Amino acid sequence: METNQENKIEVKNTETKEIFIMQKPTSAFVGAAWFTLLTGMVSYCIGLWNAEMQLNEKGYYFTILLFGLFSVISVQKSVRDRAEGIPVTDMYYGISWFTTIAAIVLLVIGLWNADLELSEKGFYGMSYLLSLFAAISVQKNTRDMLLANNAQKSH
Questions:
Q1: Cα separations (Å) of 45 from 4, 9, 72?
Q2: HEC per residue, the chain
Q3: Residue 43 CA to chain centroid, in angstroms?
Q4: What is the pLDDT of residue 3?
Q5: Residues 49-72: what's their mean pLDDT?
Q6: In the chain, which ranges are E strands?
Q7: Sign of the CA dihedral 91, 92, 94, 100?
Q8: 10 - beta bridge partners?
Q9: Within 13 Å and on the Cβ side, how many CA atoms surround 48?
Q10: Which among 3, 24, 22 has a CA at the least distance from the CA of 11?
Q11: Of the four, 34, 41, 136, 146, which is 20 to 30 A from 130 by CA?
Q12: Which residues are 22's β-sheet partners?
């Protein structure tokens, strides 16, 4: 049962008889999230490619990027699952938060001890955080669109 607005879908829970409106993300927000994720990741990787550091250091920073991206997606999924009543074990929920914090702390420690200009350290920190935040937005949009499409098909 679709409402008047293009991106809103009315959904009725058959068990509780509750009706709620699901907001499908706009294409502008989805595009902005993807653009931001790609901008952050590509900027970070270009910075690594051009950096005058040893290959093992570049590998460390690249691995921290991948680790951080996976961790924040895992946190977003666990938090969302819990909010929607989908079971998530306390262990997985805790590990997701721990790995997210660990990824950020590892980047901070690496940058703190790196022989880089302060502007370079700031660049890596900002592009890293931009990437992490954008990954959360992309994951949220992906899930919202899937739920909205499934709700639309069932009505």
A1: 44, 39, 19
A2: CECCCCCEEEEECCCCCCEEEEECCCHHHHHHHHHHHHHHHHHHHHHHHHCCCCHHHHHHHHHHHHHHHHHHHHHHHHHHHHHCCCCCCHHHHHHHHHHHHHHHHHHHHHHHHCCCCHHHHHHHHHHHHHHHHHHHHHHHHHHHHHHHHHHHHHC
A3: 17
A4: 43
A5: 96
A6: 8-12, 19-23
A7: positive
A8: 21
A9: 22
A10: 22
A11: 146
A12: 9
Amino acid identity of residue 22, one-letter, is: M
Could you tell me the two tokens for 81? 């699952």
* Structural tokens at position 26: 């706009």
State whether residue 2 is helix, strand or coil: strand
State yes or no: pLDDT of 6 exceeds 80. Answer: no
Statement: residue 141 has pLDDT above 80: yes
The CB density around residue 25, as the number of other CB atoms within 10 Å, is 19
85: left (phi over 0), alpha (psi -120 to 50) or beta: left
14 backbone dihedrals φ, ψ, rounded to 5° = -70, -30
Is the pLDDT score of 12 beyond 60? Answer: no
Report the distance separating Cα 57 and Cα 40, nearest Å. Answer: 19
What pTM, to 2 d.p., does this model score?
0.82
The residue written with tokens 């009315």 in the block is 10
Q: Which two tokens stand for residue 94?
A: 């805790």
Q: Which of 1-5, 7-11, 18-22, 65-69 has the lowest mean pLDDT?
A: 1-5
